[in-house]
């Protein structure tokens, strides 16, 4: 009934009574109902609160989570303190799932009652300490919603976040990447604390590089320069954290979730040295095989990137070729990209491809292709001739739209090329007999008028033709015929026929139905007729002379060739991948990514607990592949279920520290280390252990794995020390 | 984040509405239909505004052509069209559009997993499940649980057994057994999975995307593959999959269960698999231009004033002796075609006068068979004829991977049993187009 759109709130009390039902299925349905209608019946909804509070103490984690979720979802402001209490309780829950729900409840509570902000932020900062990858993603989402700029909370967890990235769930990754991008733009700078000491040239190139990314020189190199110029410890620190971020998101480019890939691309585009950015092209291109909505968004983003850094996508040219099955919006975006990445090297293949599209039966598409050809010709002027030829062929098309489009593109091209186009104009003029499309005709008349000096022989004849059919022409064409005649008169004031034609046309226009045309005729009459009259009389009226002396300038001044702008151009100012970029204006809630700060924020803020987090993180990179294992162990630590967790984690940390200190050696060993043997050993050990293991923990499996984890960490250190065979001895 | 989701059927009726934050009026769906109708009516965007209207009506847009982001005065309408249903998310704040689209598709995928197919009927039959899922997958507009394995622990899929159980339980008034309270520590895998027979199957499915000129020159050609896994293994197995020739892979993406670092260093896929069906990885392979495509289609069109002749032949190439199956050639004819007469020596053809296209189906082509040919004439209503049709080709070759990707070994750790392993590969035509 809800989905039928009927208002079923009258049953509210009856439904709410069922909230105590034993059947979980029914209860869930009641919850859904409650969430939908609680706002309308706040008082009655309060009845159910008790049940939720009871449920919060349930021993099933799913029930606990659900209770909190529904309770926080009821949009009744009165209960916000209760919700807050509930959140506080659940944050300390040992199940990460419940903690995750608690994190989700934070923004709900915030929107219900913004005055709770302080205590909520407190909870968030508590949750940031959480070591479970399951909860962290949701915590960051809450952070982004409640206090997106409180970077001071993030400092000490920055490295942890970077290191955990691969372990988070996909949606959490998006949120964290978003946060890290903003954090990075806020915390990493080029003008260091010692920026003043740096030679001016370096600083300027540095800032330029940061803001445009178009320079080939990259941040690292500048930083190196700075390091050389002054051996500051902070510089090294900064470098490490910054590159840690960039390094740790790299694997995420292989995520199946396009949102994640785009978020990484965003970091690489906005935050990474330009050299690194080249890595993002390939994954983005891969995403083009997904659903068409995603395709559209990604293509738009690529188009935006291609505007500022076309070189990124040069290698993937054929990916942007249009398929006949593509939808309109995809086709057009692809054309935009193709025109954006045109260079002298690939112009031939692109033009060849475009000429194929021109044959398409879909005329709208052909029209946009013609536009694209025009753009190509403008970007690479050498090929303009070839484009012209192709376009000229199109003029024979039977389709009006195509002809109109090609004429206007040709016009634009001719304008750019200036005066060496007599032939083309004459050819176009010949078309006048055949073409019926008003826009095309108007364009041709305009061209003839503009370059009439070059084709002075043919121009009067063209005018004659135009004047002959004047009354039957479309308004646009009439304007142009009038202009043409005025121009001709001005150039050949003594020519008898032309001035007669001119007068004739002006008279015709005078009685035209369209008042605009009548106005135009009046203007031109006053401009041209006194002139011709004076020429005959050779009188010396000064006023009109002034006007007439400038007549040529007025009518025939060199028109600026129109500058072609891609619609993608104005997108570049928005953050990549944001909705605002897609629609080209900023939406509520959109915040442009902050600029790099002028002064280097203190990098030491991130040093809190550095030994520990750093060692874990480093070890995981060395460890390579036990990502999920280490994450499991961390989850168990965090849940506090195992009494040995603290001891264990210290073992872990110590074990990893060893690894950390011997990183180069580890890498070397890792290569010729027999993985299978290692695995086999582990499982044997595991069996032995599990048989010994009589500890009554929640589940045997857990403890088993824990031991295994412990072993792995020890093993790692063992491997490093010597060969793997030694380990059993030690055991 | 995602505020509301409406599921709208082809007639513009709301099947499902779900609000995660505040309630957005149902009117928005009418606004949406108006907007898309407006777009459809607008025809091709007339770049030269003063052009006569007659031209504009020539091409009509289909529903697929409505851009996925529509702008209205208050909301931005992000929508996904899949299987005849429109999934609409009105958005009024800044949000990552990819997150929205990805999430909608994920919801649909999960529903497919639960219900078998997603259609108006299947949704109406399972309202309860669908609403529960929507509630569970999103919380306050943020994605919550999206792993099918985890979801199935919370919400039972609608099998017949479960239905019977439900009715019995409801009738007797006894509290239903709650879902297991222990949740797996790995979000994508259930805890305590047990199978009598441990099996794992890998399906390598490769699709060839190619665009070919009429003269046979290849414009673009590449293969996209996915490795789909059906995993029926007990406990918490840890698998390592090796490929014989991983170097051919140009670009890969993985299921979240795959450990990235292991791949980076050793090119081994190391993962703890989810239970049941999932897609382990997808990859792209650039086919070398000299590599022969399994089929070569040669179209020839001769236009005359009131129609024309066409000749299409298919030459099978080497496919390691595997037959090419389910070949379908679709030839769109120009809009003003009136009649088509053709003969073919293999398979059967059909001309659809509504969509103006010829469909030629051949169930199987062996290399040594004679060359399949389709030839015939067509006549046009008017003298104008348009060139530039694009022939679409579909086919399937089982037990053959065009990229040559092969699985080397699969090793299992942490569990004691020996699983039964199976690998199968299929090559299909993806977007295989020949320009004529």
From TrEMBL, chain A:
Residues 1-528 form the Clathrin/coatomer adaptor adaptin-like N-terminal domain. Adaptins are components of the adaptor complexes which link clathrin to receptors in coated vesicles. Clathrin-associated protein complexes are believed to interact with the cytoplasmic tails of membrane proteins, leading to their selection and concentration. Residues 192-233, 660-731 are annotated as: Disordered. Signal peptide: none annotated. One of its GO terms (cellular component) is endomembrane system. It is found in: Endomembrane system. GO terms for molecular function: clathrin binding. GO terms for biological process: intracellular protein transport; vesicle-mediated transport. It comes from Umbelopsis ramanniana AG. Belongs to the adaptor complexes large subunit family. This is AP complex subunit beta. It holds the Pfam family Adaptin_N.
From TrEMBL, chain B:
PROSITE patterns: CLAT_ADAPTOR_M_1, MHD. It holds the Pfam family Clat_adaptor_s. Keywords: Membrane, Protein transport, Transport. It is found in: Endomembrane system. It comes from the Eukaryota. GO terms for biological process: intracellular protein transport; vesicle-mediated transport. Belongs to the adaptor complexes medium subunit family. This is MHD domain-containing protein. It comes from Umbelopsis ramanniana AG. The lineage of its organism: Eukaryota, Fungi, Fungi incertae sedis, Mucoromycota, Mucoromycotina.
């Amino acid at each position: 009934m809800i989905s039928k759109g009927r208002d079923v709130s009258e049953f509210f009390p009856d439904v709410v009574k069922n909230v105590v039902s034993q059947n979980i299925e029914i209860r869930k349905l009641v919850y859904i109902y409650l969430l939908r209608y609680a706002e309308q019946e706040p008082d009655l909804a309060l009845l159910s609160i008790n049940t939720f509070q009871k449920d919060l103490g349930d021993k099933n984690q799913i029930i606990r989570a659900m209770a909190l979720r529904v309770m926080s979802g009821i949009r009744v402001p009165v209960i916000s303190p209760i919700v807050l209490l509930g959140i506080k309780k659940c944050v300390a829950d040992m199940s990460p799932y419940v903690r995750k729900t608690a994190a989700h409840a934070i923004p709900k509570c915030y929107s219900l009652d913004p005055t709770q902000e302080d205590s909520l932020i407190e909870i968030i900062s508590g949750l940031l300490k959480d070591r479970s990858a399951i909860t962290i993603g949701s915590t960051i989402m809450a952070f982004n919603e409640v206090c997106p700029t409180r970077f001071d909370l993030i400092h000490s967890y920055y490295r942890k976040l970077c290191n955990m990235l691969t372990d988070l769930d996909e949606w959490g990754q998006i949120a964290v990447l978003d946060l890290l991008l903003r954090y990075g733009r806020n915390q990493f700078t080029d003008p260091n604390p010692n920026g003043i000491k740096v030679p001016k040239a370096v600083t300027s190139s540095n800032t330029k590089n940061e803001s445009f990314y178009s320079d080939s020189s990259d941040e690292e190199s500048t930083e190196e320069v700075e390091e050389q110029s002054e051996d500051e410890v902070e510089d090294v620190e900064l470098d490490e954290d910054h590159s840690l971020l960039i390094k740790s998101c790299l694997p995420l480019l292989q995520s199946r979730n396009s949102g994640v890939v785009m978020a990484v691309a965003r970091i690489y585009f906005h935050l990474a040295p330009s050299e690194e950015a080249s890595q993002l092209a390939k994954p983005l291109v891969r995403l083009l095989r997904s659903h068409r909505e995603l395709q559209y968004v990604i293509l738009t983003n690529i188009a935006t990137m291609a505007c500022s850094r076309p070189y990124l996508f040069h290698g993937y040219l054929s990916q942007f070729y249009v398929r006949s099955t593509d939808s309109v919006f995809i086709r057009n975006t692809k054309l935009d990209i193709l025109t954006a990445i045109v260079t002298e090297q690939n112009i031939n293949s692109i033009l060849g491809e475009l000429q194929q599209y021109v044959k398409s039966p879909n005329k709208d598409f052909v029209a946009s292709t013609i536009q694209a050809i025009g753009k190509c010709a403008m970007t690479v002027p050498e090929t303009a001739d070839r484009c012209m030829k192709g376009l000229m062929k199109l003029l024979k098309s039977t389709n009006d739209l195509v002809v109109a489009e090609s004429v206007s593109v040709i016009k634009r091209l001719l304008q750019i090329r200036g005066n060496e186009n007599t032939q083309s104009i004459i050819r176009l003029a010949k078309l006048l007999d055949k073409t019926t499309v008003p826009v095309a005709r108007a364009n041709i008349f305009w061209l003839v008028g503009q370059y009439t000096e070059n084709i002075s022989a043919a121009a009067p004849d063209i005018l004659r033709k135009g004047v002959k059919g004047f009354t039957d022409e479309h308004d646009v064409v009439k304007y142009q015929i009038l202009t043409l005649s005025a121009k001709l008169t001005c150039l050949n004031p003594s020519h008898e026929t032309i001035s007669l034609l001119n007068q004739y046309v002006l008279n015709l226009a005078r009685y035209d139905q369209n008042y605009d045309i009548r106005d135009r005729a009046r203007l031109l009459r006053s401009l041209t007729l006194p002139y011709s009259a004076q020429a005959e009389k050779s009188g010396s009226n000064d006023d009109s002379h002034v006007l007439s002396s400038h007549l040529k300038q007025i009518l025939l001044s060199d028109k600026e060739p129109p500058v072609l702008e891609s619609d993608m151009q104005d997108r570049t100012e928005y953050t990549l991948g944001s909705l605002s970029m897609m629609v080209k204006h900023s939406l509520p809630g959109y915040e442009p990514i902050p600029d790099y700060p002028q002064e280097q924020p203190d990098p030491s803020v991130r040093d809190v607990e550095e030994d520990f987090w750093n060692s874990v993180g480093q070890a995981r990179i060395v460890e390579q592949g036990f990502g999920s294992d280490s994450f499991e162990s961390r989850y168990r630590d965090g849940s506090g279920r195992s009494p040995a967790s603290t001891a264990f984690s210290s073992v872990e940390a110590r074990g990893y520290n060893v690894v950390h200190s011997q990183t180069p050696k580890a890498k070397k060993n890792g290569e010729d280390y027999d993985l299978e043997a290692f695995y086999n050993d582990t499982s044997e050990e595991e069996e032995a252990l599990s048989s010994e293991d009589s500890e009554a923990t929640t589940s045997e499996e857990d403890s088993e794995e824990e031991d295994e984890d412990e072993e792995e960490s020890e093993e790692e250190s063992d491997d490093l020390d010597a060969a793997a065979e030694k380990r059993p001895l030690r055991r | 984040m995602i505020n509301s989701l409406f599921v709208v059927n082809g007639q513009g009726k709301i099947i499902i509405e779900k609000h995660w934050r505040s309630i957005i009026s149902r009117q928005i769906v009418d606004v949406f239909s108006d907007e898309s109708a407006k777009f459809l009516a607008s025809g091709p965007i007339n770049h030269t505004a003063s052009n006569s209207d007659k031209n504009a009506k020539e091409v009509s847009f289909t529903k697929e052509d409505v851009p996925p982001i529509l702008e209205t005065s208050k909301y931005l309408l992000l929508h996904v069209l899949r299987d005849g249903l429109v999934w609409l998310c009105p958005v009024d704040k800044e949000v990552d559009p990819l997150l929205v689209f990805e999430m909608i598709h994920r919801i649909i995928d999960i529903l497919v997993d639960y219900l078998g197919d997603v259609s108006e009927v299947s949704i109406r039959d399972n309202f309860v499940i669908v609403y529960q899922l929507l509630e569970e997958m999103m919380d306050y507009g943020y994605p919550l649980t999206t792993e099918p394995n985890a979801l199935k622990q919370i919400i039972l899929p609608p099998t017949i057994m479960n239905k019977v159980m439900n009715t019995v339980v409801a009738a007797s008034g006894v509290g239903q057994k709650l879902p297991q309270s222990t949740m797996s520590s790995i979000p994508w895998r259930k805890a305590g999975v047990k199978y009598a027979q441990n099996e794992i199957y890998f399906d390598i499915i490769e699709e060839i995307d190619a665009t070919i000129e009429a003269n046979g020159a290849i414009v673009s050609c590449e293969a996209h593959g996915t490795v789909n896994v059906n995993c029926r293994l007990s406990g918490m197995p840890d698998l390592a999959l090796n490929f014989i020739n991983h170097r051919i892979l140009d670009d890969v993406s993985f299921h979240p269960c795959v450990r990235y670092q292991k791949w980076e260093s050793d090119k081994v896929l190391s993962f703890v698999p989810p239970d049941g069906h999932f897609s382990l990885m997808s990859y792209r392979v650039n086919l070398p231009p000299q590599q022969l495509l399994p089929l070569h289609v040669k179209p020839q069109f001769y236009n005359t004033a009131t129609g024309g002749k066409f000749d299409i032949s298919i030459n099978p190439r080497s496919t390691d002796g595997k037959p090419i199956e389910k070949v379908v050639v679709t030839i769109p004819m120009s809009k003003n075609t009136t009649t088509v007469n053709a003969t073919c020596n293999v398979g059967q053809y059909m001309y659809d006068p509504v969509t103006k296209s010829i469909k030629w189906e051949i169930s199987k082509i062996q290399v040594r068979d004679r060359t399949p040919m389709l030839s015939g004439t067509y006549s046009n209503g008017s003298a104008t004829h348009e060139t530039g049709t694009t022939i679409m080709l579909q086919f399937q070759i089982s037990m053959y991977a065009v990229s040559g990707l092969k699985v080397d070994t699969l090793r299992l750790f942490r569990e004691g049993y020996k699983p039964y392993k199976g690998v199968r590969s299929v090559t299909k035509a993806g977007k295989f187009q020949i320009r004529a």
